[in-house]
Amino acid sequence: MVRKGSDEQKIRELYKKLAPEIVADSAKYHIRLDYTIDSLKAVDTVLAALHKEYIELSKDMTEETETGYLGYAEMLGCYMLAVVDKQGTPGRLTVVTDEFGTAYGFTFQSGAFCDFVSWCRKAILNGNSDAVYPKFAFFSRVSR
User: What is the pTM of this model?
Assistant: First the structure.
């Protein structure tokens, strides 16, 4: 059974904890994440670098290393949630729970639910073919 609801406070607590971590990490590499919609393009830059590292390490990947990459995906997904919330993107922060677990995401005004953490995981695994900004641009445009 799928439960879909809006627990905005829970999501805000999560992104307030994780988003600043990725902002600080990205600054070390001269990538500016400033909580604007345009900064979501920079998220793809970070994800492309993580994808390159992931591929280079894939044959010697340990469970601990894999978990680290999932952590980056979670931080970047939370950063995206912070951006859409702070910028007043039409829609709402949404929690979806089903037999596979809980996803913290965003439901655009069109009704489309987007799990930004999963988007970031896919981009780390697959590279630019799964870039997040084009998906965001599509769903935000459809919502207008």
Answer: 0.90
Structure tokens at 87: 């910028």
For 66, half-sphere exposure in the C-beta direction (CA atoms, 13 angstrom radius) is 6
CA distance 83 to 36: 6
Domain residue ranges of the chain, discontinuous segments joined by +:
3-142
Coil, strand or helix at 16: helix
Q: Check: CB of residue 63 under 8 Å from CB of residue 109.
A: no
CATH class given for the domain over 3-142: mainly alpha
Give per-residue pLDDT as tens, 14-39.
999 999 999 999 998 899 999 999 99
Helix axis angle for 132-142 and 63-86, nearest 10°, is 30
Q: What is the structure's pLDDT at 102? A: 87
